[in-house]
Write a structure and sequence with these properties.
about 0% strand; Growth Hormone, Chain: A; disordered C terminus; mainly alpha; 7 helices; elongated
Amino acid sequence: MIKFVVFICGAIVMSFEILGSRVLAPNFGSSVFVWGSLISVFLAGLSAGYYLGGKFADINPSSRKLSLIIIAPGLLLLTFPLYSAPITDWIFMKDLGVRTSPLLASSVLFLIPSFFLGIVSPYTAKLMICSLHTSGKTIGMLYALSTFGSIIGTLLTSFYLITVAGVNALITGQGALLVIISTPLFFKNLSCKPEDNPPGNPT
């Protein structure tokens, strides 16, 4: 279950980033400043998520907490069409410049979801390490799954999904998928206690 969650979250991160370019395009176009803003904001969110996710993972991690971490971006994506257009329109009307406007819009719309999705990899790694008592192989496998999911999400979105469905429909669908995969985790009795990592086992 956890491996599947990591794969799906990795796929959604990159798919959401590609769709983000379509969200910004009506107001800000698709210039290098738009793409630079998107990529930078997603990387910043993921980086912060990786760092703080590692810290959160050391504080009694559990599948229930992981579920809540995944539900947060799920709800943001589910409601995305309700607030994305008003926000981009408002920033566009402020006329902050071709660089600042897309950067601000990207930060407001995409930083928090990418932050929560970034938490998933280190958090799931901790849960898996507690369960299997092995670290290097587990971490490598989970990050490989996340990256592979990102590749699939990129290709599937750019080559197929974006041509057959609307941007808002795809984003809300991603939100629904995050909520769906997080639900079983909430009821799954998987936790990591101090005794799960006895001395001598890598953490």
